[in-house]
Amino acid sequence: QTRCGCSLVSCRVDHERIRAVGPDRAASEWLLRCGALVRYQGSPKWQQDYNGLPTGPLGKYKIEAINATDSCIMYRGFDYLDGLEHVTDIKLEKCMYIQDQCLQRLSETNNLQKSLQQLKIISCGNVTDKGIIALHKLRNLEYLYLSDLPGIKQKETTCRVLQQALPNLELELDLE
């Protein structure tokens, strides 16, 4: 069991479920089970109740934002993100299972390379410079906020590499 009570089995990706209910619904289920919140296109409110997930025709609800604060999302569930085409905003805060490999995977997700505009990474102790540099493939990223990341040792170099790769990126740092 992980810290938030999801068994490692429930963290595995269920590809049949994705086919059955669509990528946004399957990803919503995974994210909420892990303690994250999702917001759908056209809705101002965050969805946090797994049992209150909206129903409707396949593909009606598109995830636009993910707030993974204090959640136990981890690398092995990231396949759920592959089919999401409308995510513009992700916040990873106090995610103890988020490490460089996760950020690299995020950055290599084709749909996120197109859609993701804002990313906040806060108090994720396993993230290092390598993970932040891996974000350079998120070509439409407009805003990146980094705070309380003790694994970042070469702040200037890391920032320079990112700014060169993503000239339109607004980078906000609150690092020691």
UniProtKB/TrEMBL annotation:
Gene3D superfamilies referenced in this protein's UniProt entry, alphabetically: Ribonuclease Inhibitor
> What is this protein called in UniProt?
ATP5S synthase
Annotated organism of origin: Malurus elegans (Red-winged fairywren)
